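## retry 2 of 3
previous attempt timed out at serialization; input unchanged, resubmitting
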Amino acid sequence: MESPKCTARSRHPIYFFLFGVFGMAAMLLQLYNIAVLAAFWPFFAGIVYQLITAMAQFARMILLLPE
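## retry succeeded, writing output
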């Protein structure tokens, strides 16, 4: 028997896809930085992305009411 939490769909799937796209962009920027640029700003952009994603997830956890 499956629990309702496992089968329920997210009410806001756009956040999942949005942060997924940004995460892939940050990863590709890191790879490009390793291969070509050798600069600091792409590394810093990856750190900023992770911090923003963590803050957004924390805010959703606090602000969304439990179902």
